[in-house]
Amino acid sequence: MAPEDDCISDDADPNIGGDLYYEEPDRTPPTKTTDLPGAAVAPSDPQFNFSVGTKVKEPAVPQTSAEFLEHLKALQHFGQTDWNSVRYVEVRRQYVHAPGFTSPEPNAEISNYDNSKFTAHMKTAFSSLTFALLKQSKEIRNNVREFLNWAQHKEQVNYENIFERWNDIFTNGEYPKVTADLFQLTCGHRAELIKNIRDAILSSVKDPVHREALKKIPTSCANLFADEQFTAVIDKAGGVKSVFRPKYKGRMTPAPQNNPGSSGKQPTSNMNILKPFQRNRNEVRNNNHPRTGPNNQSYRGRGGKYHAGRNAETYKGRRTGSPSSHWERRGQYKRRY
């Protein structure tokens, strides 16, 4: 028997040596991860996000969508040479009705004071547009009512017959015609207004050749004249000052006043200028003017007035004052030999 085996008995606990190295379990609750940048968050944990941001100032005129811009170019013919060929007179005759939907006539008592021909023209345009809009809204109501009555009495309603019915109403009926007339009226009046503005600007062009060259430039969606073509014509002619006449200010435009703090001379007020005239009017109103007032005897002017302080009898019949005519004054100083 080995000496080591004598020291171990059969009744010994085999785990007696393991009690020295037994570790108690950690009873502290587990810590939760915080929502910090870079921290890992469990997918099942709820998250709270507090987003912040700033807004920038939006433009005063929003940007036109590409779809609407293409429609405008097709309707108004912008960028093309026939932009001024959109007419409205023939269409407007259908929507001018009296009374109410035409230009209001001035009263008979004030007819001579009405000189606003352009304003009357625009009033007729808006009147015809109003009539067309009312007619369009009436057609919409009638078409919708007609479609509902059709659907109510239809035994079988499906996609095919609904599409056929709507296509007949909004494609071949009266509604699309009124809508097309509205676009014709609006675009025609707008083209005429643009033409009037262009003609007013081109009236200041010096050379008729330059005027005709600028008149051929079409209108764009942003400018009265297409920018690139207009710049090319102006640069070739020598600049704006070489093409257009200078625009002078009106005579009634007041001159700029000097700043009182920058100069020692104070600006003269209009009331100070008018004071002598105001004083003369006050004298006439109060009847104390030297010529017209009750004390006119103290005034001696042309005509030989007497002095009030002198004896009238002494000067009675005596010629006083300057000669009454130019020829007498001329003979008064004639040299005598």
From TrEMBL:
Residues 1-44, 245-337 are annotated as: Disordered. Residues 1-13 have a biased composition (Acidic residues). Residues 255-272, 287-299 have a biased composition (Polar residues). This is RND multidrug efflux transporter.
